[in-house]
Amino acid sequence: METLEFESISESLRAKILLEALPYIQKFHNKIIVIKYGGAAMKEKELRESFAKDIVLLKYIGIHPVIVHGGGPKINSLLSRLNIKTEFIKGQRYTDEETMEIVEMVLSGSINKEIVSLIQKQGGKAIGLSGKDAQLAIAKPLRLLKEENGVIQEIDLGLVGTIESIDPKILFDLIEKSYIPIIAPVSPDPYGNSLNINADTMAGFIASSLKAEKLILLTDTHGVSKENQVLNRLTPLQVHQLIQENVIVGGMLPKVQCCLMALERGVKRAHIIDGRVAHSILIELFSDKGIGTMIAYDIENNL
Predict the structure, then answer these.
(1) What pTM, to 2 d.p., does this model score?
(2) C-alpha distances out from residue 172 to 36, 131, 157, 210, 267, Å
(3) What architecture does CATH give domain 31-295?
(4) CB-based contact 234:55 (threshold 8 Å)
């Protein structure tokens, strides 16, 4: 479908679009919104640029975006070039010491700095960090369980972690100074060892610690769907029902679980939206219909 440029539409329609956005801009002014950035939105040039413009616009109108990013495809590419085998167990990358060095180099190094540069090119003030900076996060090893012949066993994932605690002081300080924090999902354990953290999980814990107005997960899907129909609004109870009905399965399951955790810990609303659509963040935030799935305890109120 051809994209309709703002400059080509009628003046009355332009005014309608801007007026529709007004109550949302007023509601979210001075609020924190945590965005998990990953998937196709990171790969395609047009989508990278539209993402950066969205983030800078949010900052200029008085909203405080905080970005947590992934980087799986780039990690896979570098591991392949170095002939380092990688294995996934229940969706988690088994991470030995050699792999962890690559993960940290890619996430905290190249990708993080690329995003900082991208946003600054559009006029924003961005600063990159990981969970290791200023004691932002402390992690612990992630242990998955499996049942085999009636015996529950622990699955060893190596240096894969989950968040144990967040100290958001550095983020509040950066926000107060008009910076846009860009966070790589690498965090130390209590002994200083680097652990590989799922970016959705990191974003959920960051949003919870900041008591963010919203958590937005950019994905490569239209949102939560049932019978090929996107479910635009869901309560946590409805999400649990969809999980029991095996409607929410596979890669969508950890995403909705991340959203539910964030809501339980004080985030107002969580959104799973299609990062393959240019300016999807603005469409979801500032239009009545939105573009993905919103999960909240109160789904009747647009704001």
Answers:
(1) 0.91
(2) 18, 14, 33, 8, 16
(3) 3-Layer(aba) Sandwich (3.40)
(4) no
